[in-house]
Specification:
Length: about 110
């Protein structure tokens, strides 16, 4: 694509954190943006006000069905120029218990 032209951006994990902020930034710059995440209501908030260039799919990256949902999203957008994977999988650990963080680490 030519520098400065509208890009088609897909962000996996855009319901909160850096994924959500990136979606907001790309939308503010006028790009077409597709967002995914597990929380439908949060995805709706991200795309609100951008009906003509914001798309979403509710999906969980740990579910094999997410591949088909991602394909649907990309097709709806007419393709994709950039994909950002900002999804995390893990345990909540507000007390920072070391054993939780080390689970599965050899």
């Amino acid at each position: 694509m030519v520098e400065g032209s509208v890009k088609k951006v897909v962000i996996i994990g855009a319901t909160s954190g850096s994924g959500r902020r990136l979606a907001e930034m790309y939308l503010a710059k006028g790009h077409l943006v597709g967002v995914t995440g597990r929380r439908t209501e949060e995805l709706k908030k991200v795309v609100e006000g951008y009906a003509d260039r914001a798309f979403y799919r509710t999906m969980d990256v740990t579910d094999p069905a997410c591949v088909g949902l991602l394909d649907e999203l990309i097709d709806e957008m007419g393709g994709m120029d950039l994909m950002i994977y900002s999804s995390g999988v893990g345990s909540q650990n507000p007390a920072l218990v070391p054993g939780i963080e080390m689970e599965g680490v050899e």
